[in-house]
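Ticket #4471: complex job returned nothing on first submit. Input attached below:
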Amino acid sequence: MSEKRLDLLYTEVEQELRASVRSLLEDKSPPEAVLARVEGDQVTDTALWKELAGIGVAGLPVAEELGGAGAGLRESAVVAEELGRCVAPVPFLGSAVLATTALLEAGAEAEGDIAALASGEAVAALAVPLATPPGAAFPEAVRAEDGALSGTVTGVVDAVTADVLVVPAVGPDGPGLYVVEAAAARVSPVVSLDLTRPLAEVAFTASAARRVASGEAAGRALRRALTAGAALLSAEQLGVAEWALETTVAYAKTRHQFGRPIGSFQAVKHRLADLWVAVSQARAVVRGAASAAAAARQDPGDAEAAREAELNAALAQAFVSGVAVKAAEEAVQLHGGIGFTWEHPAHLYLKRAKSDAIALGTADRHRLALARLVDLPAAEVG
Amino acid sequence: MTTAPAGASLDAPALRRRVAALVETHDPATTDQREFLAARFDAGLAWVHFPEGEGGLGAPRSLQAVVDQEFERLGFVPTGREGLVIGLGMAAPTILAFGTPEQRARYLKPLYTGEEVWCQLFSEPGAGSDLAALGTRAVRDGDTWVVNGQKVWTSLAHRAHFAILVTRTDPDVPKHKGMTYFICDMSADGVEVRPLRQLTGEAEFNEVYLTDVRIPDSQRLGAEGEGWRVAQTTLMNERVAIGGHPEPREGGLIAVAAHIWRTRPELRTPGLHDALLRLWVEAEAARLTKERLRQQLAVGQPGPEGSAAKFAFSRLNQEISGLELELLGEEGMLYDDWTFRRPEGVSLAARSPGFHYLRSKGNSIEGGTSEILRNIIAERVLGLPGEIRVDKDVAWKDLPK
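Support reply: We reran it on our side without changes. The output follows.
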């Protein structure tokens, strides 16, 4: 089995980007502020998103001539890690990753829509259920007829604050990818498990739409957007896991019971050592997924690069989802009573981790995707 | 030896030129391996970070990978080196760090060429994870030391010419003090090696009985009473052996399980499918972690992930080999060979799945148990408080045994 050697380290440029994103987030959106925010009217922090966009975060992998920063998905992954560390309520996943990638992969017809997203002036959402795995069949919930869309999509991430919707829909001449002004649809917020990431139901009723890709190209654009999304989501999950581990280790050093710090008990320290090993492994897997995704984006015609991107994204989701959930669960448990309270931010991370484990396909679905990609076929039970 | 000034001026291209110059005068295709390795040692290309004249050039350690890769590219990869792991990986760095110039001159070269095999006399029946509890006594008698005790789990003792040996020289001080480290001639009177049969049926390891073994003081490595510090150097080198070569995807034991799955469709069930996929994912995660560590070392930024690699590897091997047996069903109830024998090395590929399963149980015990490795990660990497120590200030002779 051949595979290109992936660069699994962080470059200096990436570390500088990390430092500036982290300092902005620590200043503007510490966990306590997020905790206060989730009970307000608007969870999404649009002011913070504008500031992040100001340092290039919204359009990192978008070429400069299209209004972006001209970086790559490796850099985006570093940003995703930092956003995960803060469970930041900004539309990075929905707008900068899913919708922007779908438009970039759609081709020339969609180029005009990208600059506003890359600058953070406008927010977009990809109108599919967030639980959709990259290998899913082209969705048929929305029908296209005479340049207008009708139908309902549930569980759409970042639709609540979106100005523009990127919609996969099926018409008489097959699948297509459409752009719709959010004002032309009905967006109804739902109560989501992840308090920091608003989901919505989006209903179209003969909503005016513009087609940006059709046929196979539409299917490919959607699939690549979900694949890139899965790779970058794993980076966010790594950030969640890192916060949970670091916070819990710090707590275990200061919390005393039976006259000793709880971190001196083997029952606690062995669990934290196991978690550290898992997080270290997750970091390597996440870097692999980001590098493979970046390589595929750089050379869209390279089928082998596309396959490696799919494989590494599936691997990352199959592995890192579990690590992030485990880390968040251990954070709640090892914080004891305080970990079960609303006032401690651990539950925000637990909710994000568990929700992320379902987003863009559960680990089980990604294992089945791997089974296909690496030729380990399912059992045929007679 | 034709060499330009070494040291700080060395970089990757300069080392490649030195490799080329050596291959020019010693064609690997026609030169005897031991002779070639001797020439490589003399050229300072054995361990580039060792001093000149002692197998190295005083170059940065990270450049060793450049040299190894260059020799490999030119088609020279030494073979049959499995029996040298203790010497190369543990004795050599310890002799370099603590040996006298005479000791370094005497031992490093034959150790490198494979002329002399080494073993390690550390563990004892009562001192495994708690190595500092060891009780093999060394008593000074003029210019020699008289050693009595028993060591265990000694791989290669039956083939070794020399051993690195840790002893108790002062029982009246706490256990980490009062230890002294020696180089022991395995052919000396009073050294008796007995095979130790393990649960696989074979004997990779030995028990070594030391009865009035006389070791000259010139064979002491490091100061009297400093044996623990010297042993720490040895042990630190035991776990950093991450190779310079990238591993392919689906290498190692997962390849065996995947091969069975692909070629034996009649054995497939949905539950085994999921179990196999989970382990495939774990194996790939472990591979990428090792690859990331390798890349870090190559740019001179070693991370603490090295301390986790062995730990993760042992767990994975145990789980995959367990699945392998279940996957084979009826055939998993068979074993290849219970004959009591002495293997040359641990070759999993040549043995049955039952052997894989049983041998892998040793992976989480040898070279530091998983429990000890967890403590090390928790305390040294995460900075969690240490274990409560009840033996810290007690003289070794007063400890319960």
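The beta strands of chain A are 124-126, 142-145, 148-157, 164-171, 174-181, 185-190, 199-208, 210-214, 256-257, 260-261. Closing as resolved unless it happens again.
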